[in-house]
C-alpha cells in the first residue's frame, strides 16, 4: 500500500507509514515541481522534438537548449520520485518487522546524519550538470541536425537529419578527403611529437642524473627554463623565426648554406616545424618528471646489477625503464591525449595552413583546429559537432584501454 501510494503522489506512502515530516517534504517538493516547472518541461520536450514550427517566431537553438534543460530536470525529478518510492517501501517493511517509528525529532536527526554528504555534493553536482553535461548534450544534438550558415535560426528552422552529417564525412569528396588527411596527420602529429618530447626528456634526465655530471642544479635550471616561458609566447616567437621571408632561421642560418625552406607555405615543412616546436615546448616538463622518478630509484638495485655484471643497457631495461613507466605511465598517456587536441600550437603558428586545393582544411590542421574553422570561419556547426564526437570517441577509447594496461592502475603484486 505504501508503494502504491508513493507511485500515485510522492509523500503519500511516507504519510501512510507515519513518517509525517518526510511525507510532507516529498509532497511539497512534487507540488512545487508540478506548479512551477510542469509547463516549462512540456514546452521544452515539444521544442526538442520539433525544433519549432514557425520560422522567425520559433528559434530552434533556444528551443533545443530549453529541451535539453527540460530533460535534465526530468532526470532529477525521476531520481527523486524513484527514491520516494524506494523509501516508502523500505519504511513499510521496517514497520512489518515491528521496528519502532521514530519521533519527528529523531527523523530530523536521522535525515541530517544520512543525507549530510549528499547535501554537500548536490550543489557541485548541479553545477557540473549545467556546466559540463548541458554543453556536451547540446553538441551531441547538433551533430544530428542541419545547422549551418545557410540554415540558421531564426530565419529558418532546424531539422533532425539523423546520421547524415556523419555520412558526409565519408561520402562527399571534399569532406572525405579533408577528413582523411586531417585525421591521418592528427595521428602522426600526436605520436611523433609526443614520443619525441618524451624521448628527449628521458634522455636528458638520465644524462643529467649520471654521477659523473657536475653542476647538476645549474643544468636542470637551464633545461627547465623553456617551461617557464608561456607557451603562446614561445609559439609566436618561433612563428616569426620560421617565417619564409624575414625569419631568422632562413635569413641567418640556412642562408649560410644557400638553402631557403618554405616553412609556412609548404605543408610538409610546416608539419616538421610544428613537431620540432612541440618537442621544445614539451620536453622540460617531462625532464623534471623523469628526474624526480630517477632520484627515487634505490641505488642498491644498480649496485646489485653491477655485481651481477649488468651492462648500462640492461640496467636501463630492467631497472630504470620499468620504474619510470610504473610511476609516470598515466601522465604520459595524458601527454598523448593533450597533443591530440593541442589547438594552441597549430593555430598560433600558421592557423592550420597552408591552404590545400580541394579541401576545406589546411595542410597542418588537426581535428581540433579543423573543428574550430568549421565553427567560427565556415559556420558548419553540425559538421563540427559530428567531427567533435568522433574526436571524443577516439581519445576516450585510447585513454581507457591504455589506462587499464598501465601498471600504475594495478596492484603491485599483479605486475
From TrEMBL:
GO BP terms in the entry: maltodextrin transmembrane transport
Record localization: Cell membrane
GO MF term set: ABC-type maltose transporter activity
Membrane topology type: Multi-pass membrane protein
InterPro entries: MetI-like, MetI-like_sf
Domain ABC transmembrane type-1: 183-402
GO cellular component, one term: maltose transport complex
Sorted UniProt keywords: Cell membrane, Membrane, Sugar transport, Transmembrane, Transmembrane helix, Transport
One Pfam match: BPD_transp_1
Domain of life: Bacteria
Protein purpose: Part of the ABC transporter complex MalEFGK involved in maltose/maltodextrin import. Probably responsible for the translocation of the substrate across the membrane.
UniProt family annotation: Belongs to the binding-protein-dependent transport system permease family. MalFG subfamily.
Matches recorded under PANTHER family: MALTOSE/MALTODEXTRIN TRANSPORT SYSTEM PERMEASE PROTEIN MALF, MALTOSE_MALTODEXTRIN TRANSPORT SYSTEM PERMEASE PROTEIN MALF
Name this polypeptide is given: Maltose/maltodextrin transport system permease protein
Amino acid at each position: 500500500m505504501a508503494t502504491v501510494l508513493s507511485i500515485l503522489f510522492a509523500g503519500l506512502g511516507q504519510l501512510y507509514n507515519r513518517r509525517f515530516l518526510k511525507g510532507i517534504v516529498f509532497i511539497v517538493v512534487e507540488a512545487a515541481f508540478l506548479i512551477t516547472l510542469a509547463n516549462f518541461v512540456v514546452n521544452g520536450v515539444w521544442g526538442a522534438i520539433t525544433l519549432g514550427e514557425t520560422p522567425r517566431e520559433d528559434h530552434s537553438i533556444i528551443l533545443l537548449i530549453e529541451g535539453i534543460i527540460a530533460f535534465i530536470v526530468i532526470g532529477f525529478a525521476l531520481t527523486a520520485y524513484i527514491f520516494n518510492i524506494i523509501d516508502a517501501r523500505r519504511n513499510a517493511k521496517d514497520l512489518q518487522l515491528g521496528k519502532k517509528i521514530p519521533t519527528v525529532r529523531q527523523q530530523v536527526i536521522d535525515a541530517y546524519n544520512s543525507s549530510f554528504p549528499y547535501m554537500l555534493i548536490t550543489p557541485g553536482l548541479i553545477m557540473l550538470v549545467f556546466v559540463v553535461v548541458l554543453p556536451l548534450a547540446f553538441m551531441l544534438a547538433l551533430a544530428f541536425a542541419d545547422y549551418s550558415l545557410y540554415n540558421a535560426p531564426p530565419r529558418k528552422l532546424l531539422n533532425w537529419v539523423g546520421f547524415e552529417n556523419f555520412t558526409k564525412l565519408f561520402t562527399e569528396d571534399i569532406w572525405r578527403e579533408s577528413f582523411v588527411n586531417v585525421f591521418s596527420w592528427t595521428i602522426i602529429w600526436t605520436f611523433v611529437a609526443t614520443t619525441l618530447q618524451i624521448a628527449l626528456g628521458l634522455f636528458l634526465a638520465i644524462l643529467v642524473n649520471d654521477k659523473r655530471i657536475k653542476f647538476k642544479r645549474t643544468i636542470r635550471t637551464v633545461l627547465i627554463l623553456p617551461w617557464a616561458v608561456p607557451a603562446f609566447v614561445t609559439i609566436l616567437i618561433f612563428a616569426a623565426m620560421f617565417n619564409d621571408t624575414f625569419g631568422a632561421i632562413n635569413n641567418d642560418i640556412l642562408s649560410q648554406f644557400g638553402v631557403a625552406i618554405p616553412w609556412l607555405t609548404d605543408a610538409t615543412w610546416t608539419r616538421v616545424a610544428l613537431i620540432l616546436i612541440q618537442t621544445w615546448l614539451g620536453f622540460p616538463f617531462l625532464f623534471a618528471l623523469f628526474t624526480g622518478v630517477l632520484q627515487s630509484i634505490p641505488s642498491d638495485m644498480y649496485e646489485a646489477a653491477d655485481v651481477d655484471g649488468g651492462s648500462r643497457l640492461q640496467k636501463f631495461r630492467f631497472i630504470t625503464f620499468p620504474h619510470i613507466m610504473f610511476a609516470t605511465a598515466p601522465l604520459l598517456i595524458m601527454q598523448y591525449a593533450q597533443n591530440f587536441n593541442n589547438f594552441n600550437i597549430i593555430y598560433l603558428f600558421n592557423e592550420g595552413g597552408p591552404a590545400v586545393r580541394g579541401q576545406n582544411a589546411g595542410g597542418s590542421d588537426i581535428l581540433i583546429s579543423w573543428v574550430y574553422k568549421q565553427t567560427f570561419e565556415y559556420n558548419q556547426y553540425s559538421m563540427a559537432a559530428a567531427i567533435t564526437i568522433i574526436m571524443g570517441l577516439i581519445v576516450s577509447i585510447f585513454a581507457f584501454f591504455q589506462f587499464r594496461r598501465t601498471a600504475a592502475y594495478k596492484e603491485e603484486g599483479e605486475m
